[in-house]
Amino acid sequence: MISIMNTMGIWLAAFFTLCIFSFLYKDNPFYKFAEQVFVGLSAAYWLVYIIYSIMVPNLFAKLAEDFSGNMILLIPAALGLMMLMRIHPKTQWVSRYPIAIMVGTTAGISMLRYMKSDILQQLTATMINPFAAATTAEVIGNLLMIIGTICGVYFFYFSKKQEGVSKAVSKVGIWFLMVSFGATFGYTVMARISLLIGRLDFLLGDWLHLLK
Amino acid sequence: MKLSAIVERRIIYLVLLVAVALPLLFPIGWKTEVSGYTQMAYDLIENTPEGKVVIISFDYDPSTMTELQPMGEAMIEHAFKKGQKIIATALWPMGVQMAEQAFDKVLRDYPDKKRGVDYVNLGYKVGGMVTIQAMGRGLKEVYPKDTRNTPYEEIPLLENTKRLKDVAWVSSLSSGVPGLKEWMMVARDSYDVPVTGGCTAVSAPGFFPYVNEQKQLTGLLGGLKAASEYESLIGRKGTATTKMDAQSVAHLLILVFIALGNIKVFVAKRRKNND
User: Would you say residue B67 has pLDDT above 70?
Assistant: First the structure.
């Protein structure tokens, strides 16, 4: 029975993969069908998952187990219900309160973390002695990092017209940015090709059994 | 012969499809050089003493498993080889199944490893950064049970692991938010636990600046290539290695397409100027 279900699953997956790939030729009913099924299934899956993996263990089960000991959970439960008031135009205003709390707490938590990790630690990592490295390649790398950081940041300094020396610094900054965009493009290509490889690996291996 | 843009595009898709399929059917066996970032991640696990408890967080879903699953399997195998004990967690709901699949595959070569003793899957927890912060105060409060409903205090592996500070390293295999960045911000920058990990190729350039003097990240595996590098370091012929041939051929082909496209634009411009 498990084997039949497994085989059916593989054939269904292969069918939907080919339906999606058919879009590369042109938009067609098969593609639209697969797209709609995906959207519907995802919504249903997430609804069930959220109920059984988040709501039940974190709220309902705890309240059922020890209601008086877990009464504090009624606060997030109430906030969640208030959020659902968005559904009706007349009660939409109620949802503003839980949203305000979410925005406030998220901003508060994130601000400190980002300040430390993205600004202070990153700045400290740039303030190094470039010549203390072990190899020539590392020294060059350190110098490039320092020059690239300074020039890259300077490129975004718009309070003064960039001319003369400042224009040259800004131009170097653009070059560093261009190199980083090129690297990002290369990695993006790699990621997209990986997705294609994954699907072809499935079609040729699991479905057609052509791979060793 | 003049082809329309749509026909040209279809030809490109077809050629690309064939170029990716052929190396999968007939592997070439090209070698990949190990990068410094992958080596750093490898060294972290390699130099962690036997018996230490570590966390591997599966923060992705099936859409990115081609890139991230080989990393997960390779890291599990490496940690098992070194006698380390693994706690699997997930900041993404489907990461739980990804972890189970990875363990199932690696356990075929390590049948002596026991659930609860050598590894445990604590499952998914909503909350991202807040969850990791709570793990810093106490793991049991966040994960009272594992995915098989075994209470925290009955899992031998977790006997001496009370909070995040008690683990030797954290690895997040991440395809977005929450993921590697959140682990780095809290586990590394707040609790001083070494953090390494892997990410999809598309997000790798955004993470590289964190592999720095401050060791915000101790190495990084970026995409399928890094996964194959890691496999070669631990001597495993995994799925990433076999797929790298297809990746390399596709990249060469894209380079050819870019060159042809530029030549075409150059010729068209020249023709226009001559007219």
Answer: yes
d(CA B51, CA B35): 28
Same domain, B95 and B151: yes
* Mean pLDDT estimate for chain A: 94
B210 in the same domain as B185: yes
- What is the pairing mode between strands B119-124 and B170-174? unpaired
8 Å CB contact between B19 and B254: no
Is B65 touching A (CB cutoff 8 A)? yes
Q: What is the distance between the terminal CA atoms of chain B, rounded to a whole angstrom?
A: 20
Contact with chain A for residue B201, Cβ under 8 A: yes
Write down the domain spans for chain A: 130-212
ipTM field: 0.90
Selecting from B181, B210, B251 the residue whose C-beta is nearest the C-beta of A189 gives B251
- Residues B186 and B184: their CA atoms lie apart, in Å, by 6
Q: Is residue B179 domain-resident?
A: yes
pLDDT digits (tens, 9 = 90+) for A100-114: 999 999 999 899 899
User: Which residue, among B190, B214, B256, would best test binding to A if mutated, counting the most A CBs under 10 Å from its CB?
Assistant: B214
Inform me whether the C-beta atom of residue B40 falls under 8 Å from chain A C-beta atoms. no
Angle between helices B65-81 and B95-107 (to 10 degrees): 50
Cβ A49–B247 below 8 Å, yes or no?
no
Bridge partners, residue B174, by sequence? B59, B199
Q: What is the dihedral of CA A64, A70, A74, A80, to 10 degrees?
A: -80
Q: Are residues B94 and B207 in the same domain?
A: yes
Alpha carbon of residue A163 to chain centroid = 39
CATH number at residue B190: 3.40.50.720
User: Domain count of chain B?
Assistant: 2
Q: What is the DSSP string of B198-265?
A: EE-GGGHHHHGGGSSTT-SSS--EEHHHHHHHHHHHTT---HHHHHHHHHHHHHHHHHHHHHHHHHHH
